[in-house]
Amino acid sequence: MNKTLIALTLAAASTLAANAQAECVKRGWQVAVAVTDPSGLPLVMLRDRFAGWHTVAAAEGKARTAASWRESTSSVAERVNKPGAAEQAIKNLPGVVMIGGGMPIDAAGQMVGAIGVSGAPGGANDDLCAKAGLSAIEGDLAF
Q: Which residue, 29, 59, 64, 103, is most buried by CB atoms nearer than 10 A?
């Protein structure tokens, strides 16, 4: 059985990151944005001049976590943080970030990468900026 692999281009990843960052800037938030390939390896990293060093590590971790679990970090965190959840131990894995701001990038039924945003006031606002970035490339990918 042959399977066609759809890849996220560097141009699309750059557009995605720039638009996510622009949404945060518009709201006055200094952030870092990471876009990864499906395995969680970095393709693009942007950081506002005044975004703290920790935002880079958090954005990369959010993107890597979303890529690994193939779902948003908000969804993973909600499930994992429930009392008695069997998956609670994954929170302690190196590089895993369990807070909003990480989302997979899907195209034509395949996950082609992930985005992580960090530095906005709270995970929900990081999600908002990530979604703005995803909206900017919808026309470039067959969702």
A: 59
